Amino acid sequence: MDIGIFLLMQSPQGAPSREIYARALRSAQLAETLGFSHVWVAEHHFINYSYSSQPFVLLGHLAALTERIRLGTAIVPLPLHNPLLVAEQAAAVDLLSGGRLELGLGKGYQRFQYERLGIEKSDDHTRYDEAIDLLRLALQGRPFSFEGRHFQVPETLIYPQPLQRPVPTWAAVNSTVPAVVESALARGLHLFSGTLEPISKLFDMRRSYAAAFAAAPGPVRIGTQRPVFVSESEEEARAVVEQARWNARAGLSLRHEIGGVTEGRVSVAPLPGEPSTDTVMAEHMVVGTPEQCLRQLRRIRAGSGADLFNCNFCFGAMSEPQVERSMRLFAESVLPALREPVAEPA
Q: What is the pTM for the complete model shown?
């Protein structure tokens, strides 16, 4: 299982943008030094839940600061963009990075962002699927034309062309909706899923959608992510759960349109039916001592079939030294064990 890091770049207190970006750059460079495989960056707009509004710009800068680590978007909300412009940006990052781009796509879940861009948020997947088809066609690096229901493009060639052919492309999917999973698999997309469910409720899409996996045009990867904190102190590990609650409350409030956003800050308050600290640690995070974190990751791998796991090391208002200690301890005590053959739990 490859292990990457995920950068949401949130700030509950609304810290200056230069501080958030400087931290993100240092975290990405540290991740490469420590041996992580990927760094993935979010895309959100107009809100302190994430300062990462231009992921391709950020990844283009990281391409110059790194040499090996793969660079991913997690995710570009494609309905907010023209797919041809996304293709051009993706191709530029792939070229500048020497062929290290991983392109993660999704629909986005925050109506708040759609409204401010004057775009209707729809549950209709036909335009989204068509946009993916057009984007991937453009990234093949040769002249193309496209005639669809929503997009009509006469003969066109994007510049620059990407180095990778094809560019590895991922789709965020709800694993419980067969039509969504099967559509992504039919297009040969890798899958992001399993970030919200309790760990004990995860299921392996390779088994549940065996026929669709078998019919996919190529090998398909499964990726997932969770908040991660590694400490030799269980007391410290329990304390950071409150920081993770900020991310959870903010994300759920935006997803379900609870509360609001004032002066660019999401309103965050305890939500009905929140799980206890023990339940959060057992079912929603990878947190604790190195041994406890390794057990959690093995549970996730066994339950989801994932071969990529992204660590969100920085959540809530955690300090940079605290995040760095966690990353270093993970790399020292957890990563090596994940690279060894292990017997999965029954």
A: 0.96
